[in-house]
Amino acid sequence: MNIVCLDMEGVLVPEIWIAFSEASGIPELRRTTRDEPDYDKLMRFRLDILKEHGLGLREIQATIAKIDPLPGAKAFLDELRMLTQVIILSDTFEQFAKPLMEKLDWPTIFCNTLEVAASGEITGFRMRCEKSKLTTVKALQSIGYDTIAAGDSFNDLGMIRASKAGFLFKSTEQIKRDCPELPAYEEFGELLSAIRAAL
User: Fold this and answer.
1) Given 43, 88, 92, 199, which is the most exposed site by the fewest CB atoms within 10 A?
2) In terms of residue numbers, what domain contains 157?
């Protein structure tokens, strides 16, 4: 029994924080998990910048409303879901993911949640569990699933390496150099073929 675990940002949809960085004109918010392996440190850095600029959930959601899935992502996901079960494992937040999941026809997503004040200020965040992607993959394996995983960032490497087949997708040159043992793809057709061969 197989289950495919996919990262969301950079794989199926554009990076939300990069889009918001461009919309807000704050270049520091371009930093993502491709640049910073420590997610807790990255999020605290982001929240400090939002507070400094007086920005909150409403402004970020206004940007997310304009984001569409990457070209070919929905067709890829539709075809993949006809072949096997798929879960999106993301370090994003429910408040960010929902409109994007609607555009992808409501696939299952496991993600985190933001703590938001009545004013709309994002005051904190709650992670589902430590090392959420790797922990989830191991939990799925413990109930009898063989996992196949794909992602683009540092925080995807644990789930990719722990799976029976794992792939980098649209990753950085640095991560590809650091992980030469991991097959790396740029096109959805290539990734679909690789996953199909692993099923």
Assistant:
1) 199
2) 2-12+70-112+129-198
The CA distance from 123 to 55, in Å, is 11
Q: What is the pLDDT of residue 39?
A: 86
User: Do strands 85-93 and 108-116 pair parallel, antiparallel, or not at all (unpaired)?
Assistant: parallel
Query: For residue 193, how far is the Cα from the chain centroid?
Result: 21
Point out the residues that are catalytic.
7, 9
Q: What is the pLDDT of residue 33?
A: 80
DSSP H or E stretch at residue 64: helix 57-64
Residues of the chain with pLDDT under 50: none
Name the strands in the sheet holding 2-6, side by side, starting at the edge strand that comes first in the sequence.
122-126, 108-116, 85-93, 2-6, 146-151, 165-169, 184-185
Residue 142: is it exposed, middle or buried by C-beta count within 10 angstroms (0-12/13-18/19+)? Answer: exposed
Q: Catalogue the E-assigned strands of the chain.
A: 2-6, 85-93, 108-116, 122-126, 146-151, 165-169, 184-185
Locus of tokens 């289950």: 3
Is 138 contained in some domain? yes
User: How many domains does one find in the chain?
Assistant: 1
Q: Which of 52, 94, 26 minimizes the C-alpha distance to 44?
A: 52
Q: What is the pLDDT of residues 79-132, one digit of tens each?
A: 999 999 999 999 999 999 999 999 999 999 999 999 999 999 999 999 999 899
- CATH code: domain of residue 169: 3.40.50.1000
Name the pairing type of β-strands 85-93 and 122-126. unpaired
Q: Give a yes or no: residue 17 inside a domain.
A: no
